[in-house]
Amino acid sequence: METKLQGVLNSEIQSGSNANVPIEPVRAAFPALTRAPGFIFFDNAAGTQVPQIVLDAVNHHLLECNVQRGGRYAKSREVDATILRARRSVADLVNARDSSEIAFGMNATSFIRLVSLAIAQTIGKRNEIVVTDMDHEANVATWLALERNGARFLWWKVRDDGNLHVDDLIPLVSSKTRLVACTLASNAIGSIVDVAAAAKVAHAAGAEIFLDAVHYGPHGLIDVQAFDCGYLVCSGYKKLRLAPLSTKTSPEWMPQYVILKRSLRADPRKRCQGGFVCNRRSKPSEATKNRCRSKCFAS
Ligand SMILES: Cc1ncc(COP(=O)(O)O)c(C=O)c1O
């Protein structure tokens, strides 16, 4: 079996476009792979190995500029400039209109939760949220938790062909729909959803769409303007960044997750410090703002 598999892989490598991939320099970029020469890593869906260039950047930050942001001294300004550059490069990566649409934080699940808490405050008569049975639990359970805030849920279900069809979304959406939460790609079977069409349906009813690009991100190009999404979340640790070490780890030197709120143009640092979605539609009380501030882990 092993020999047969090896034969298949060899012929794939020789005949396919993979034949031209300079694999040795690629492996050499990853300390974990060079330290264990026989180690072939296939578990990247759960998180990727980290290249030296990322470790160097983190080392540089910790050794040279591990300071408070927003200060008037040179090191602090250097950190602010680095984060701005990171935001701009992520904006390019996902084709955002503006770098202020990008925020970094801990991980996808906590970002979905953060946004859901803000949306919970704006639930009124528009209290219906569409979730799918193809999504990762992170983009389902987080929304279901809003039941206590008066949200109602409608399920967009997978068909026998293993995908979500926009025709099935249409009857679920109405003037009561606040949000459609769906994935770009199934993390179980890889089906790719036509999210641009789903966004059209949501917007026609005055609703927003929240996209989970965690599984899709490492495999496909993200284009938030083409998707026309309100929010998109993606996990950087599946894209050659460091994984979160603890909830106390400073996100400033670990800009690994991104979330996007397209129509929001405020300074990302301020919007996060005040609880960034709360700022847009409702006027939160001082107590709410303080709660958001104490929970804030996005930069
Ligand atoms: C499709 C999808 N969404 C969300 C998540 C949760 O991501 P995170 O670990 O960044 O919270 C995962 C994790 O595997 C995933 O595959």
Features:
299 residues, alpha/beta, 7-stranded mixed beta sheet, 38% helix, globular, binds pyridoxal-5'-phosphate
Cofactors and ligands: pyridoxal-5'-phosphate
Low-pLDDT residue intervals, each spanning 5 or more residues: 1-10, 245-258, 261-284, 291-299
> What is the terminal separation in angstroms?
49 Å
Gross geometry: globular
Structure notes:
The termini are far apart. It contains 13 helices and seven strands. By secondary structure, it is an alpha/beta fold. α10 (224-227) links the parallel β5 and β6. A seven-stranded mixed β-sheet has the order 1-7-6-5-4-2-3, sandwiched between helices. It has helices at 2-15, 23-28, 31-35, 52-64, 74-94, 108-120, 141-144, 166-169, 195-204, 224-227, 268-273, 278-281, 286-295, and strands at 102-104, 128-132, 152-156, 177-183, 208-212, 231-235, 257-261.
Write the layout of secondary structure elements.
Layout: H1 2-15, H2 23-28, H3 31-35, H4 52-64, H5 74-94, E1 102-104, H6 108-120, E2 128-132, H7 141-144, E3 152-156, H8 166-169, E4 177-183, H9 195-204, E5 208-212, H10 224-227, E6 231-235, E7 257-261, H11 268-273, H12 278-281, H13 286-295
Parallel strand pairs: 2-3, 2-4, 4-5, 5-6
Antiparallel strand pairs: 1-7, 6-7
The chain binds pyridoxal-5'-phosphate.
